[in-house]
TrEMBL record:
SUPFAM superfamilies: Adenine nucleotide alpha hydrolases-like (SSF52402). This is Nucleotide-binding universal stress protein, UspA family. Belongs to the universal stress protein A family. It holds the Pfam family Usp. InterPro entries: Rossmann-like_a/b/a_fold, Universal_stress_UspA, UspA.
Amino acid sequence: MPKRILIPIDGSPQSAQAIEFALAEWPDAELTLLHVINPAEAASSPGAGVPSGAEQWFENAKADSETLLAEATPPGATVSTMTEVGRPAQAIVEVAEEAGFDHIVMGSHGRTGVSRIILGSVAEAVVRNATVPATVVR
């Protein structure tokens, strides 16, 4: 039975389902919600190419992350929150390993076929590379 569970969130309904699943399945476990700020998203942000624009983008991303984590925390639940910067799949695997989590529970966007090949799958990369068990909720 897992004692420390990492739940990566992105604001999607699937990540909310992952939180609900973990709470129902392991009510006594210590849960931590993780949001990863992906710097690759700055490339599509207007003005991010100039130094002050990049700083502003990052400050906005941190504020958005705090809001996302606060909104994702279920009322009455005791959870910890974390924000990391990096490639989502890699950051999730590294946090799980370095911070001593013994399970990862995450949502899947359920993409199939060409869209999965083109867009990739964070959940799939985490499952393949994690050193701890990972549960994908769909």
